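Title: Prediction job returns without error message
Component: structure pipeline
Severity: low
Priority: P3
Assignee: unassigned

Description:
Job completed but the reporter wants confirmation the result is attached to the right record. Sequence as submitted:
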Amino acid sequence: NGTLSGAHFAALVNSAARGTLRTLRLPVEVEAKELKALLAPEWPALENLTIPSRLGVVGCRALAGARLPQLRSLTLDRTEPGKGLERLLLGLAAAAPRLESLSLNEARGGDAMCAWLAASGLALRELHLAACRIGAAGAVALAASPSLQGLTQMELSNNDLGNDGVAALAG
């Protein structure tokens, strides 16, 4: 049914596989308290993490405080905009220092989300922000960020960047 019970999460948290697991795709429905418990211990080998459910404030805080030293790719599509997302983006460089690819498609965080990304210190190579309600100010913030100058792929479809935003990204 696309959900994991608390008992299944506890088993995963306590599993020996936590030390060697490289890819984790969580089910569609993840409760914030279960996500917090899941991310509390360090995941030393995890390289790819996908959380398809709408990540709210508690889930964002849990992820911002996680220890994911090898994480390279993070997919958080449809994450709820607001203070939780701000805290996550500003704390992600410390939680996942090797992060190269971030997907926040349909997060609807708009220009504020772009400002948080620009200030995050994340040295990403791929950034996916389709349908995030980004305007010209967000595009300008992304283009001006020194830490995002190494981007080789950026997805900004279904946003209203305007002429100024497109010009800023074109450099």
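Comment from assignee: result matches the submitted record. The radius of gyration is 16 Å.
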